[in-house]
Design brief:
Blueprint (H helix, E strand, L loop, with lengths): L11 H28 L2 E10 L2 E2 L4 E4 L5 E3 L5 E7 L3 E5 L6 E4 L5 E5 L11 E3 L4 E3 L7 E5 H5 L17 E5 L8 E5 L13 E4 L2 E3 L29 E7 L2 H4 L10 E6 L5 E16 L8 H14 L24 H6 L3 E13 L3 E13 L7 E14 L5 E17 L4 H6 L31 E18 L4 E20 L16 E24 L2 E24 L15 E25 L3 E12 L8 E11 L5 H6 L3 E15 L10 E9 L2 E8 L8 E14 L4 E13 L1 E6 L8 E6 L2 E17 L3 E18 L20 E4 L2 E4 L6 E3 L15 E4 L4 E11 L2 E11 L1 E3 L40 H10 L6 E3 L2 E12 L9 E9 L3 E3 L17 E11 L1
Parallel strand pairs: 1-8, 14-17
Antiparallel strand pairs: 1-2, 1-5, 3-4, 3-6, 6-7, 9-10, 11-16, 12-13, 14-15, 16-17, 18-19, 18-50, 19-20, 20-21, 21-22, 22-23, 23-24, 24-25, 25-26, 26-27, 27-28, 28-29, 29-30, 30-33, 31-32, 33-34, 34-37, 35-36, 37-38, 38-43, 39-42, 40-41, 43-44, 44-47, 45-46, 47-48, 47-49, 48-50
């Protein structure tokens, strides 16, 4: 007969007996201790915690040596039960911890003072684990809700501009819903779409790419609408940016371009608290283009016709032939983009809970107009909820959060910015005497007609996440994160016949409609096991985990034309002609195993190792899995006794370094397979299939090798804190289009080439406490990033599709253009360098290299507190070159307005003039030269700027004015001042086609009760 045993061959029964005995003794001891504690004399302690500005909420009050604790409410008040022999510990991040003996007191009022040394104790979110700032070995930057609250922004990326070293963020348009371009430590991939960072929102990966692969926003926005607009900045508690290999390698294939971790707000223990806030923002175009007035414009036009030998103006040249008033003047920038955009926001929340369970429920509403004429409007509604729970024995914990955002963006079908720049200054009035659109008897293409065309984008986005953890004992913890993301977007673009000049004779039969819908659903499950242990001077921590993720995307694009009436234009079923442009369904699956081991010896020597094995459905069977990892180390030399004795001015010093490999799988789905698309052509009633891609089983991962070395120094109790970091990233195995012979039927095949891109640079950060008294505090924060990007190698570049845009040894941000050499003194037209010496200027002479990548960028911020007043402002600066107004300008002399510089022209101002000879369009040499001029070195100039990015002035309402609530009043501004020599509208988006970022003024209030 066999014996049943849990541990065959070993004396298991005695072990079980000993285990039960020890457990019972532990329970008895715990009960005895607790009983002894409760039998002592207890009393209820109440009080108020304040700082220099007034009541301080969310301060943790703990009975030292016990698990009994509470937090102060919004008025700084607390209540806790303690014995007369107990010690109360008051702690709050950024403030010096204080301890008070209870004694016979029943009321304790205490004032905490700020302590910059406590900032090293701030816990940094590194994704799968948390680490104290002083012990981190990687490069992790952080901004908090306090930084975000000083800005009126609708996109989280806007809140980061100028505040984080190594992170360059550019706003592409001043319209609501527009995208932001972000690069963390430069551009790693040759493919433009392969440089986005990984976004993690409360543990859930969030795609940075729009659901729409072929959006309908062209003409009104550069690129597709930004999916990050579906994140409400007011719901964010903190944003961490992971930059080096030590911080990002644990994310493996998704961490090559950096990781952005967004943590939303959670409830705090205490009495139930309600908050309400509202703000109104006014936005205007910050900077105009200096254009010709009517006198200068008419003189240019007259001279252009004279140069072309025309003495009698053609009948279609309405601006000069007398059809239009030659003396009329309109500033079209005022008329078309000169309105004031109005933004109204309303936010409310309720939060509270016990020490064990906390909750938060908040909602917000945003209503925003544009600077265009008409009724364009952007609306956003959001709901954020969070609940956290911890069991009495602190073994089990649960955190759940859910965010739902719905936005509706209704804009004109076309951005009127280019019309404002190009429309002749003597063009007719927009409205006739009857208040209707003025077409001036068919001679004027009224730009307000474009407002008849509509673009509408509606988005619904849900992100939810649950984290469950159980501590078996102080050393072992089992944790599981489960997340779900559901995004839906629908876009409609209409082009009714009424948007065109009536003289064209168009009817609703010529009207058109385009409709696109898309959805993306993804789920992720990440179980994780954590272990922590300490022996004397050694602290060890480890984790292992796995990831299971699936994402399904569907997109349907349709179009229709020919309607019985324009009132039916929004109904696709009413179209006479209907076409399904595309119907796409993709599935992406991802699986990984990750691990981390961290060791700290004597609070001085730290080593951190992370690794991940990734598997992705985006690659062929032979390259589906890859390994990534990194090692980071740090030495806190300020803890060495010798330095403590000899250099008391040094309060903190740390050297750190890291090296590792991360990957990049931002290539889309099914790229390695033979793929086919449904043809839109009909052959004898049969719809065919069209091959779109060739099979490539060797399709593999891009990899990025990252190295960093850094030093952190704190002086005078960290009142002066300096950080410097050097980094070098090399991205290889680039995924690019390899040219194929024309006989294959395909121009190229996507494959891995031995092309290498390098980014290197330095990042400097300085934080100082300049002045600190009872009533006045002044702190400064400065960051500077100097980086260089270059293409190290690209075998076969000359024969590739990138031959006209890339050069080995140069940046990926270069433009290969004509080299402008001046004006021909004989003909008066622009001249350019003939690189190949064949006597002909053509595309092969576009060899001049202009680098538009930023040379350096950063921010300079200050915060000043005086009693209840707080002033916070940030200057952002960028050193760069960029495309100027000449890039989108047409030949001087045509029926379009020009920049004032064009008045400086040949022959009046000689060969040193800005503009060549004027032409009405009949001088082919001048027209061709003007086209080359817009793609020459003359169209690229200094686009550096210093901008007052944000400023905020707030006043805390004193308690004596209101015994019922607390609150603040504030004034804020965005993009208030810009110092630049840029020849164009705005040096940030550098566009003559799209609206620049707006200057905004905000007034608002927030109250809590």
């Amino acid at each position: 007969m066999k014996n049943l045993s849990f541990n065959k061959g070993r004396p298991s029964c005695p072990c079980i007996f000993i285990f039960v005995l020890l457990l019972s003794n532990q329970i008895y001891a715990t009960e005895l201790t607790f009983g002894s504690y409760t039998k002592q004399s207890q009393q209820q302690i109440t009080g108020t915690v304040t700082d220099a500005l007034g009541p301080l909420p969310s301060v943790t009050v703990t009975v030292k040596g016990t698990a009994i604790s509470t937090v102060t409410d919004d008025k700084g008040k607390f209540s806790i039960t303690a014995n007369s022999t107990d010690i109360l510990v008051f702690s709050f991040i950024g403030y010096a911890t204080q301890e008070i003996i209870v004694g016979n007191k029943t009321s304790i009022n205490i004032t905490l003072s700020e302590d910059s040394t406590q900032l090293k104790e701030v816990t940094i979110n590194a994704g799968y684990y948390k680490v104290k700032d002083k012990e981190r070995t990687g490069s992790i930057a952080k901004i908090t809700s306090k930084d975000i609250e000083t800005q009126t922004v609708s996109n989280p990326l806007a809140a980061m501009q100028g505040r984080v070293s190594g992170v360059n963020i550019t706003q592409s348009t001043g319209l609501p819903g527009g995208a932001f371009d972000i690069q963390i430590r430069g551009r790693n991939s040759i493919r433009t779409e392969g440089n986005s960072p990984l976004y993690i929102i409360d543990g859930v990966p969030y795609s940075s790419q729009s659901v729409m692969t072929t959006g309908l926003s062209g003409g009104i926005m550069p690129g597709t609408t930004s999916p990050l607009n579906s994140i409400n900045p007011s719901d964010i508690e903190s944003i961490e940016v992971l930059k080096d290999a030590d911080a990002t390698a644990i994310y493996g294939s998704r961490g090559a371009n950096g990781v952005v971790l967004i943590t939303t707000k959670k409830g705090k223990a205490g009495a139930t608290r309600f908050t309400v806030g509202s703000a109104t923002t006014f936005g205007v175009v910050a900077r105009k283009v200096n254009l010709m007035n009517t006198q200068q414009y008419i003189a240019m036009r007259d001279e252009a016709f004279a140069n072309d030998g025309i003495t009698e103006y053609p009948e279609w040249e309405y601006d000069v032939n007398g059809t239009w008033d030659r003396n009329r003047y309109t500033d079209w920038q005022d008329k078309l983009i000169g309105n004031t955009a109005l933004v109204n926001t309303l936010q409310s929340s309720v939060s509270g809970g016990t020490v064990n369970t906390q909750f938060l429920l908040s909602g917000s509403f945003r209503d925003e107009t544009t600077v265009f004429p008409g009724s364009s409007k952007y609306k956003k509604d959001s709901v954020h909820s969070s609940i956290t729970h911890r069991s009495d024995n602190e073994k089990f914990s649960l955190a759940f959060s859910a965010d739902y955002v719905s936005d509706n963006n209704a804009l004109p079908g076309i951005d009127l910015t280019s019309e404002a720049y190009m429309l002749p200054p003597n063009a007719p009035a927009l409205y006739n005497d009857e208040g209707k659109l003025n077409w001036e008897n068919g001679t004027f293409n009224n730009p307000l007609g474009y407002l008849e065309a509509k673009f509408s984008s509606k988005t619904q986005n849900l992100i939810s996440n649950a984290i469950l953890s159980y501590k078996f004992n102080p050393a072992w913890e089992l944790r599981a994160s489960v997340g779900y993301n559901d995004s839906h977007i629908s876009e409609i673009r209409t082009a009714p016949s009424t948007m065109y000049n009536p003289s064209y004779g168009l009817t609703s039969a010529n009207s058109s409609l385009a409709v696109s819908t898309g959805s993306r659903r993804s789920w992720i499950i990440e179980p994780q096991l954590n272990w922590n242990r300490k022996w004397n001077n050694l602290k060890l921590s480890a984790l292992v985990g796995t990831t299971f993720q699936e994402q399904n995307t569907e997109q349907l694009s349709q179009s229709g034309s020919g309607f019985a009436s324009n009132s039916l234009i929004n109904n696709l079923a009413a179209a006479t002609n209907r076409t399904v442009q595309s119907h796409i369904f993709t599935e992406y699956r991802y699986n990984a195993f990750f691990a981390r081991l961290n060791a700290v010896w004597a609070d001085k020597y730290i080593i951190n190792a992370t690794g991940r094995r990734d598997g992705s459905s985006r690659f062929g069977p032979g390259n589906r899995f890859a390994n990534f990892g990194a090692v980071g180390s740090a030495w806190i030399f300020s803890n060495e006794q010798l330095l403590k004795d000899k250099f008391s001015v040094l309060s903190f010093g740390k050297l750190r370094a890291s090296y590792g490999i991360t990957g990049n799988d931002q290539i889309g789905d099914y790229q390695f397979l033979d793929t086919y698309s449904v043809s839109t052509n009909n052959y004898n009633g049969i719809i065919g299939m069209v091959p779109t891609r060739l099979y490539n089983p060797q399709f593999g991962w891009e990899s990025n090798r990252k190295f960093e070395a850094a030093i952190d120094l704190g002086f005078l109790h960290d009142n002066v804190f300096f950080s410097a970091a050097y980094f070098q990233n090399r991205s290889s195995n680039q995924l690019v289009g390899v040219p194929l012979p024309g006989t294959t039927g395909f121009p190229s095949i996507l494959a891995n080439l031995d092309a290498t891109v390098e980014n290197n640079g330095i990042e400097l950060e300085l934080r100082t406490v300049n002045l600190k008294t009872k009533d006045f505090n002044w702190t400064t924060a400065v960051n500077l990033s100097v980086s260089k990007n270059r293409l190290v190698s690209f075998p076969g570049l000359e024969g590739s599709t990138y031959a006209n845009s890339l050069v080995v040894g140069e940046s990926l941000g270069i433009a290969k253009v004509y080299h402008y050499t001046g004006i021909d003194p004989q003909t008066g037209v622009y001249t350019f360098e003939d690189y190949n010496g064949d006597g002909i200027i053509n595309a092969s002479d576009r060899q001049y290299i202009a680098d538009t990548a930023p040379k350096y960028f950063g921010g300079f911020g200050n915060k000043l507190n005086y009693k209840r007043w707080e002033l916070d402002f940030l200057f952002q600066f960028v050193k760069q070159q960029g495309r100027n107004f000449a890039y989108t300008a047409l030949p001087a002399g045509l029926m379009v307005n020009q920049a004032i510089e064009v008045a400086n022209h040949w022959p009046q101002d000689g060969t040193g003039a800005y503009s060549q000879i004027y032409t009405s369009g009949l001088n082919d040499d001048a027209v061709n030269a003007a086209d080359r001029f817009s793609n020459s070195s003359a169209s690229i100039s200094d686009a550096s700027f210093i901008r007052l990015k944000s400023i905020s002035l707030s006043w805390q309402i004193p308690e004596k004015l209101s015994k019922v609530f607390t609150g603040k009043l504030y004034l804020q501004g965005q993009n208030l001042l810009t110092f630049t020599n840029y020849n164009g509208a705005d040096p940030e988006n550098r566009s003559g086609l799209y609206l620049p970022p707006l200057r905004q003024f905000t007034i608002g209030f927030q109250i809590g009760f």
